[in-house]
Amino acid sequence: MQIACADESCYPRIMAVHLQIRDLPDELHETLRRRAEKRGLSLRQYALEVLEEHCRLPTLDDWLAGLSRLTPVALPSPAAEAVREAREAEDAALIDALGHP
């Protein structure tokens, strides 16, 4: 008797899936190959790391949903003003460190 499943729940979680990417642009392939080489990894190992890292990030919808759950913060002044002041302070510190404007 065979069981029909509508989703991946019927497949064992440990089953490896073979992924093939067709029509990969040469420039992208070369970039991935060089980055893998710099890390001392095979292209397969590097691509797997890149995919794993990407999958750990929230989707845009998840990220936006998380924002909607945050409590708003009241600021004493507009955020743009705080950013401008911080940039001016960093510029002043850099000028002091370099010794000239």
Low-confidence stretches: none
Intertermini distance? 81 Å
SSE-based structural type: mainly alpha
Counting DSSP H or I runs of 4 or more residues, the number of helices is 4
- Overall radius of gyration: 24 Å
Q: Could you say which overall geometry the principal axes of the C-alpha atoms support?
A: flat
The strand count comes to 0
Average pLDDT over all residues: 88
Give the count of structural domains: 1
Note the run of SSEs as H and E: HHHH
Write up what this structure looks like.
The structure is a single chain. With 101 residues, the chain is mainly alpha-helical. It has one domain (24-98). 56% of the residues lie in helices and 0% in strands. The longest helix is centred in the last third of the chain and has 20 residues, at 79-98. The chain is flat. The model has no long low-confidence stretch (mean pLDDT 88).
Task: Set down the secondary structure blueprint.
Blueprint: H1 26-39, H2 43-56, H3 60-68, H4 79-98
Task: Offer a few descriptive terms.
101 residues; 56% helix; 0% strand
Question: Can you describe this structure in just a few lines?
Answer:
With 101 residues, the protein is mainly α. It has helices spanning 26-39, 43-56, 60-68, 79-98.
